[in-house]
Design brief:
GO terms for molecular function: ATP binding; GTP binding. The protein is an alpha/beta fold. It has helices at about 15-25, 35-45, 70-80, 90-100, 115-130, 145-155, 205-215, 215-240, 255-270; strands at about 1-10, 25-30, 55, 85-90, 135, 165-170, 180-185, 245-250, 275-280.
């Protein structure tokens, strides 16, 4: 039997993950009291031939019992049943926004602000995140991308890359992406906007790309940026970071930033230690 323990931050997508796993044929139970964990596993592992895949949702709602989960997991291991831990995560800013949008109360908030509840929850779940086999950061993830990731891990059994690098092109006139970890300004490059035949095109079009990259500074900048990112990512991984958002900005977010973001994506896309995705935030404005 394949047993998955789904845990993580409140608001990061645990319920969505369980629903997706259920659609994939997993027998799912959410918010199971931790003392019942060995009993449940015994029932489905040793006494039920029908259930071959199960997922259990466990999170901060278990209160103080969460700290006892280590002992119960040891009992499961001794029974011969292997398990995997899926930890759902998201940035603090994303979690706060989601709670404000849904107007739900964070389970750790009490009479304090949401950010205090999130901070305390992170502290209490830190040991589970360290034990996790898979960490999925949903800050920039669409639901279809979450489905794809879970399918790769739990259906196709493909190797999963915990570090996700997101390259975002944007226009400074519309503001810097609030979740960006690194921001680079490419407004020093020649602007295709002032070339009549290129004005209505974008950095996804070859003529614009050729115009921007024809500048010697563009190639030098791209090489230095790629080298720096390749240096930084392994060090971020060592520090436990699983999501990196790189913002590439120009004035309007249509030409230069899109071109450089695309080129950086091409440079990084072949990496095997982490996955890379790209987003052009302002290209249609």
């Amino acid at each position: 039997m394949r047993l998955v323990i789904v845990t993580g931050m409140s608001g990061a997508g645990k319920v969505s993950a369980l629903k997706i796993l259920e659609d994939m044929g997993y027998y799912c139970v959410d918010n199971l009291p931790i003392p019942l964990l060995p009993t449940f596993v015994d029932l489905v592992y040793t006494q039920s031939a029908e259930i071959t895949k199960a997922a259990i949702g466990i999170d901060i709602r278990n209160g103080n019992g969460l700290q006892d989960i280590g002992g119960y997991l040891e009992q499961i291991e001794k029974s011969g049943c292997a398990y995997e831990i899926l930890f759902m995560d998201a940035s603090d800013a994303t979690l706060i926004r989601r709670y404000k949008e849904t107007r739900r109360v964070h389970p750790m908030t009490g009479d304090r602000r949401i950010d205090h509840g999130i901070e305390e929850e992170r502290r209490q779940l830190a040991f589970l995140k360290k034990k996790a086999d898979y960490i999925i950061d949903t800050s920039n993830l669409l639901i279809r991308e979450l489905v794809r990731s879970l399918n790769q891990i739990f259906v196709e059994n493909q190797e999963f890359k915990n570090m996700v690098v997101t390259i975002v092109s944007f226009g400074f006139k519309y503001g810097i992406p609030t979740d960006a970890d690194l921001v680079f300004d490419v407004r020093f490059l020649p602007n295709p906007y002032y070339v009549e035949e290129l004005k209505t095109q974008t950095g996804n079009d070859l003529p614009v790309q050729e115009y921007v990259m024809n500048c010697s500074q563009a190639g030098t900048f791209l090489a230095k940026l790629t080298d720096m990112v390749n240096f930084l990512i392994p060090n971020y991984v060592l520090e436990g970071k699983n999501s990196l958002v790189i913002g590439i900005g120009c004035t309007g977010g249509k030409h230069r930033s899109v071109t450089i973001a695309n080129k950086l994506f091409e440079q990084l896309a072949g990496e095997t230690e982490y996955s890379v995705r790209i987003e052009h935030r302002d290209i249609n404005r």
